Amino acid sequence: MTRTVESETELVVLPKKYGRRPAAQPRRPGLMKFGHWWWALPGIILVIAIHYVATAVGGFFAFTDWSGIGDFSWIGLDNFVRIFQDPSKLLALGNTLLLAFASVILSNIVGLGLALGLNRTLKSRYILRVLFFMPVVLSPLAVSYIWKFVFDFNGPINLVLKSVGLEEMVKPWVADPALAIWTVLVVIVWQNTGFAMVIYMAGLAAVPVEIEEAAAIDGANLWHRFSHVILPSIRPAVAIATTLGIVNGLRVFDQIMALTAGGPAGATETLATQVYKQSFALGNFGYGAALALLLTLIILSFAIVQQRVTSGPREEN
Amino acid sequence: MTQHRRTRVLRHGILAVAAAGALTLAGCSSSESPDESSDANQDFSFTFATSNNLESPYQTLADLYMEENPDVTITTNPTPNDKYGETIRTQLQAGNASDVIQTTPGSGDARGLIGLADAGFLEPLGDTAKSLVPEGSESLFEIDGKVYGQPLDFTIGSVVASFGNAGRMGITDFAWPESMDDLYAACDAAAATSGSLFALAGAAPPNTGLMAQAISATRVYAEDPDWNQQRLDGDTTFADSDGWKDTLQTIIDLNDGGCFQAGSEGGGFDAITNGLSGGTSIGGFIPSGAAIEIAKAAPPEAAFAVEPFPAADGGEPYIMASSNYTLSINAASKAKDAAAAFLEWMSEDAQQQKYYELSGELPVSAYKDMDLTGTIYEPVVDLLASSSYTSLPSNVWPNPSVYDALSVGVQGILTGQKSIDQVLADMDTAWDQ
């Protein structure tokens, strides 16, 4: 039983073994033969209609001046020209990239550190794993409102600062133009770290203890064992954690809307919050669709590049 | 799989796709046009915005209507205020909006009736609605002489102040300042008690926007009541307007003068509620009706009153006052007669009085004849009588982005991110988009 679970974990986290494959087993008659591809047709139709057709229609409106109701006109690339000529949208683009990359770097470093620390030996590791993973299962919106209270001018941070005589450091954290984006980053990293930790723990579970012990016997110190044995072994976990992290980071929305609503004065706006505001709050659906299309292309590009970078060289048998 | 079987599977697949497509199209289309709808239906639905978990005045009135008309069932759809505009737009576009919809006059808001009527989503209303439209505000309710929203209220957009709070803060003999010098003196007196003259939700753009509009009443519209029309005609711009520059400069002066609570730039609406009900602030820039709700959380001695913001030196007192809430009928409704009967009932004096008691908003049909002595409106009675007021500018502006640029810009001014010229240029850009 245990062996089966490990094998499935290995299938997920270990690199695929290329080279000669065992001959495919002939299909079992009976149950497998009973299925037909067109049974999946309703599901396929729904996926195409809800995901791809809807996205394509949204993409179409990016080239129009539709307000969300009534008629519209085809305006070509005007919406995209407006985006790149508007400093507030370029700031939103910069914030999007900053939050995505900073959150993925910090979440993964801290998550990997926690996974290494809680991988073996520590007696209280199970309870600590639960505690560190807990923020992941909480609603981002609820978590952000709690953090908003923490960062509030009359909140606990400022109360502590006042109580230790640091009144000059008391400030409205989420309304400070220089600090607001970092408060958002803190919340995102706090909530995402547990997710990265779990992925890395799954990866670490597949690293054979014998290899680590062999490296230690050969004189490799802690850092060398990590960089030359563990890290290469968990490369697929790194790929998964960073890809998911970057995609989630690029489309972060809840935390910003709850903490700052894009403020102060647009200092924490991202493409995702701008898509929402332009499309629905301000009635510029075409412009919002153009921002959404841009965000989609950015996510797609980074996901592809990131996958290529972290996939590593193909292993030879 | 044989060739024959593959062909059969393909044929089944194509048939399944066609059937699914036909079902989808059938679901998306209506089998009858609005003209063919039955007006005999007595039941209808009603969507309105709510800001809290208290029972909405609309809900109470709908219940009362059903009580008086047992054969009528109203399905109410209270919708959160912050998502209200986008919700009704999506529902109207999708064809599943309620029969009666709460809207706002003009086009400066996502729920603005002009934009919705222009897109063909609203039904023209009758003579009763037309008779309720405040004089001079026709352009906010009508297109080509047809009225698309029945006004309900007459809201004052100025300062709501609590004289009881001044006493609770230790300021004796507090009188509402009538000049800017008096106002800054009041700010100093309030700040000396660790409180503030104004509670401001600096991180909530609607509040910063309302504050700017309330101040602009004396700086812009007292001198040029038709300033918006001049802007529409291209005769002026925000950037060229001394009145608008003075308005934003006043906000900077108020901030520098310690008139707002500490950390006001990060405050939400809770800062206003807590400040006014908790007795740490004397006033706030909130709609007049909101005073009723805050009064429920404040002690009885809070003594709220609607006060005008002081004019600049040499200026005349002036306030924002207009109908901010309207009821409209969905053009695709199948119960238009029942919906129209409800609107007719809502316009009657008894219901208008009930609405005033429940919401605190003055009734649009009767506010001129009401004796407002001893009410929160007493300080502005003379201004109303002398017509020293104008409609809320954001209702008149051509799109929601102008008000957004003002609201966000004021927050930028408070945090030092934006200059007055930048904010006004942003408003001009939004106007011309």
Features:
heterodimer, A: 317 residues, mainly alpha, MetI-like fold, 15 helices, B: alpha/beta, D-Maltodextrin-Binding Protein, domain 2, 2 domains, globular
Question: Can you describe this structure?
Answer:
- The complex is a heterodimer of chains A (317) and B (433).
- Chain A has one domain (56-68, 76-310): MetI-like (MetI-like fold).
- Chain A has helices spanning 2-13, 31-34, 41-61, 78-85, 87-117, 125-137, 140-151, 156-163, 180-205, 209-217, 222-233, 235-250, 254-259, 271-281, 285-311.
- Chain A is mainly alpha-helical and 317 residues long.
- Residues 1-7 of chain A have low confidence and may be disordered.
- The two termini of chain A are 28 Å apart.
- In chain A, helix 5 (87-117) packs parallel to helix 9 (180-205), helix 6 crosses helix 9 (180-205) and helix 12 (235-250) packs antiparallel against helix 15.
- Chain B is an alpha/beta fold.
- Chain B has two domains: 37-152 and 323-363, D-Maltodextrin-Binding Protein, domain 2, CATH 3.40.190; 156-321 and 375-432, 3-Layer(aba) Sandwich (D-Maltodextrin-Binding Protein, domain 2), CATH 3.40.190.10.
- Chain B has 18 helices and 15 strands.
- Chain B has helices spanning 3-28, 57-68, 84-94, 113-118, 127-132, 163-168, 180-191, 205-221, 227-232, 242-256, 269-278, 290-297, 336-346, 349-359, 381-385, 393-396, 400-415, 420-432; strands at residues 44-50, 74-80, 100-103, 142-143, 146-147, 150-151, 153-157, 159-162, 196-199, 281-284, 304-307, 319-322, 326-329, 362-363, 389-390.
- In chain B, the strands form four sheets. Chain B has a five-stranded mixed beta sheet with strand order 2-1-3-13-6. A four-stranded mixed beta sheet of chain B has the order 14-7-12-15. In chain B, strands 9-10-8-11 form a four-stranded mixed beta sheet.
- In chain B, helix 2 (57-68) runs antiparallel to helix 14 (349-359).
- Chains A and B meet through helix 3 and helix 14 of A and helix 1, helix 3, helix 4 and helix 17 of B.
